[in-house]
Design a protein that fits this description.
47 residues, alpha+beta, 2 strands, 1 helix
């Protein structure tokens, strides 16, 4: 679970951990299409 704007969010179950890493890379300005077995970004973490 992640905390966003003071609220905890729980992305849908079954998402690969690589999705979180990919999302973190996007937040840092690294715009990769994929990372390991990622299936996409965790959009609820992006502002």
């Amino acid at each position: 679970m992640a905390k966003v704007n003071g609220n905890y969010i729980n992305p849908k179950h079954g998402q690969p951990l690589a999705n979180l890493w990919l999302t973190q890379m996007h937040a840092l300005g690294l715009k990769l299409d994929r990372l390991a077995d990622s299936t996409g970004l965790v959009k609820s973490l992006l502002a």
